[in-house]
Prior knowledge:
The protein is an all-alpha fold. It has one domain (4-286). The protein is built from 14 helices and no strands. It has helices spanning 4-29, 32-47, 58-79, 84-90, 94-104, 112-129, 138-161, 166-188, 192-198, 201-228, 231-234, 241-253, 259-276, 279-286. Helix 1 (4-29) runs antiparallel to helix 10 and helix 2 runs antiparallel to helix 8. It is globular.
Amino acid sequence: MKGLSLLVAVAVPFLWGFGFTLAKPAVTQFPSFLMMTLVYTANGMVLARHFVGMRTPWRVLALAGGLGALNNGLIFASLDLLPASTAVLLLQSEVPMAVILAWLVGAEALNPRRLLGIVVAIGGVGLIVGAPESGATPWAVALMLAGGLCWAISQVIVRTRIRDDGLAVAASMALYGVPACALGSALTETGQLAALRSATVGDWGALAAVAFISFTLGQTAWFWLLRRHRVDQVTPFVLLMPAVGFVTGAVMLGEAITLVKLAGAAVIIGGLALVVVSPEALRRLKA
């Protein structure tokens, strides 16, 4: 991987990490599924022209879009209950999930080094969850892990079944995600109208930034990469996301960076490095 692909791969975790921090004030105002309904609506309006001549069967797109919607709704519901810096670390559990699922369908290899990395990463998650200052409740952790599992399944679908390029996939995710998130909001949330009426200019600005940075730019770039490179080529770059989340959380939200969080981050990133970075992957990055 080099040239444009390398530049895009480095940009994605910065877009996601920055957008994740911006989502914290947005999800405080808007219930998570309502927020994602608005985000997907805006994203779909921007990208709708790319939802033409899709080669991927609509059932596959609908399944991937529904899982993506559930993933984001659950993750942002968890973010509402957690500090952004803690949430961005717990979110990294989705990477080994994706690798295991890809192995189960024969799309990736799983060896003792990767298994060790998964165990180490889980240990890091446990270290953070067990720290009193992390603010991690069992319910918040369960929401984050469930969202991560939905993401992992959707990534395997994108990698193995999607036949279209990044903009088209992002457009389909948005268009199928709108009804899924709207249904999720109707079934599980209350106070939607009150949230819309009481939102300030700053709340709408944060929402718009999340929609554009994390979804229009971030997801389009990610799907573009997945269509051109193996999962184990692009996932190492996700390791940059916790660092971005830490810095932006501290600078923008005033969150404390504790020794326990730093230790947990080091363990998680070390474990994920064992999972996604191999001599073969490093050679592919240079290829």
